[in-house]
Amino acid sequence: MAPLAGQAAIVTGAASPIGQATARMLQAEAVSLVLADIDPAAMEAAGWRDGEGCATLVADLSQQEGAVALVALALERFGRLDILVNNAGGGVIRPFLKQSPKTLHATLDRNLWTCIWMCHAALPAMVERGYGRIVNVGADSVRNGLLAHAAYNAAKGGMHGLTTGLAREFAEQDITVNTVAPAMVRTPFVERETAAGNPFIKEFIDVIPKRRAAEPDEVASMIVHLARPESGFVTGQVMSVNGGSAML
């Protein structure tokens, strides 16, 4: 039997490439899924529907009520919550002085506040059971100061800091908290911008020694690894999946 069989997992941003890849890997190991995204059309396009072993919710997780509703759904449908993957995100990538109050708030809401509220909602259930695996999806650009990423890095850097604080606070309850920090990932957006000749794309690729973007599965495999019971002695870590763009 797979080590994760019978567990229940929440994956946020489930319609995104990393979210889809993570959910399908967990599903292949007989994990019950609770999947959320803010975009109903994207959820439909990804093929996520309520059914046996899968519950879905369209919600704004940057708001406390959305996070609370998602955790309540997991407990109602499956009676437990073992794994939380905080993958919801999506920043406005542009030079800092071209950011507006609206884009700055959107970047912080999508990345940091979704993570804060989901952890705040999920941790009581994990504490009660004395077990949990929280995996946040951060960003390798926090380490290398990538061009035009200042606002995005502020949001993801906050997530990295939340990771270490929660990891220490909940270690004795066998709840681990880690972050997977990818470099550029091959998404439809990256493919479109590459085809359009966006000069930023080349600059992003140039800092990666492997000279390519990561595949979503390459990021998801690290997320699932950290979600396993045998990863219980790994906590408070930021694990880069970056093709060598930052080392040590």
UniProtKB/TrEMBL annotation:
Q: Name one Pfam family in it.
A: adh_short_C2
Q: Which SUPFAM superfamilies match?
A: NAD(P)-binding Rossmann-fold domains
Family, per entry: Belongs to the short-chain dehydrogenases/reductases (SDR) family.
Q: Cross-referenced PANTHER family, in alphabetical order?
A: 3-OXOACYL-(ACYL-CARRIER-PROTEIN) REDUCTASE, 3-OXOACYL-[ACYL-CARRIER-PROTEIN] REDUCTASE FABG
- The name this protein goes by in its record: SDR family oxidoreductase
